[in-house]
Design a protein that fits this description.
By secondary structure, this protein is an alpha+beta fold. Helices cover about 30% and strands about 30% of the residues. The chain folds into two domains: about 5-145 and about 310-315, Gcn5-related N-acetyltransferase (GNAT) (Aminopeptidase), CATH 3.40.630.30; about 155-275, Aminopeptidase.
Length: about 325
């Protein structure tokens, strides 16, 4: 069954977002509302797969910033991929990815980088794209290791984390709500500069904008000590997963294990709200080739386990075809 591949246009924004709301593997990160906050930062080359006038799938994508020969799905979000309503199963997914590859090859791109949506975020099992990537002879170019708690089967936290929570509980209050964003950003900026010589991916103004766009999907949990915000996390909430997008703590917060109280509160609220997974995020450097074992171990001690974030490259030169 043949699909038509069409280039995304701004007048399709509402239809795109309505489709994402009912997709089996989409989150608010795939919406045009979220992608749009990037402005002109990326050269957007997103596409839609159509069957007549019906959307079958959407494919958020942009040209790689440092390589004009590569298209990425998507360089501005954690994962991209073919977002669909569950109908792209088996051979239909192979056909969809082959058509997308042909579309971008015709536009003279040499490679398509596909950032897989981790299975935790699927509304129901839908890893047909991984099989299709195999059939298209895609090369796994990167693999990051994340850590997530299955809240339905959570192991007991380590003794160190239990001691940390007991210590934090004596001096820390946990505030929930976005009104603390400016105070948390001061901690975050200092934390990243001090430890890594880096800055947050999102500026304070960008985060304020995203919170305004997605008040139901972005939450802050902050540790206050003597009335001062000293630690906290920014959580991106999706239907099955709460993801800690940012984690920050001052030296004062570290001295009293403040993050133990923050994480425990967030995990407790997620579990009571019927969320299946709490995702701490990846612990990698150097394009996935280096694992920060200390950071990963810290996350693991809350009762988490490993979840991979996979990146695949499809050669668009025409020398690789699906094994039909």
């Amino acid at each position: 069954m043949t699909f038509d591949v069409i280039r995304y246009r701004p007048d399709l924004s509402d239809a795109w977002d309505a489709f994402c709301a009912n997709a089996v593997n989409g989150t608010f990160l795939h919406t045009r509302r979220f992608l749009g906050y990037h402005g002109d930062r990326f050269d957007d080359v997103s596409t839609l797969l159509m069957q007549g006038d019906r959307i079958v799938a959407v494919f958020p994508a942009a040209q790689a910033r440092r390589d004009a020969t590569m298209v990425v799905s998507h360089p501005g979000i954690t994962y991209g991929g073919v977002v669909h309503d569950g109908t792209l199963c088996g051979e239909r997914m192979i056909e969809a990815l082959a058509l997308l590859s042909a579309h971008y090859g015709a536009a003279e791109y040499k490679r398509l980088r596909y950032k897989v949506v981790p299975h935790l975020y699927h509304q129901r099992a839908s890893q047909d794209d991984l099989y299709a990537l195999f059939r298209l002879r895609a090369n796994r170019s990167r693999c990051d290791l994340s850590c997530a708690i299955d809240l339905a089967e959570r192991p007991k936290p380590s003794e160190r984390r239990r001691r940390g929570l007991k210590k934090a509980s004596k001096v820390v209050s946990v505030a929930v709500g976005a009104e603390q964003v400016a105070a948390l950003w001061r901690v975050l900026i200092d934390n990243l500069e001090r430890k890594h010589g880096a800055a947050p991916v999102h500026t304070l103004d960008e985060m304020k904008h995203l919170i305004a766009l997605f008040p139901e999907s972005i939450e802050l949990f902050c540790a206050t000590i003597e009335g001062q915000v000293e630690a906290g996390i920014v959580v991106f909430k999706t239907p099955k997963v709460w993801h800690a997008q940012y984690i920050a703590a001052s030296d004062v917060a570290y001295s009293v294990s403040a993050l133990d109280a923050v994480f425990e509160r967030a995990i407790e609220i997620a579990h009571s709200g019927g969320i299946r997974y709490f995702d701490f995020g990846t612990s990698n450097e150097s394009e996935g080739t280096v694992l920060n074992q200390g950071l990963y171990q810290y996350k693991h001690e809350y009762g988490g386990g490993g979840v991979v974030h996979e990146f695949y490259d499809i050669d668009l030169s025409g020398s690789h075809h699906a094994d039909f």
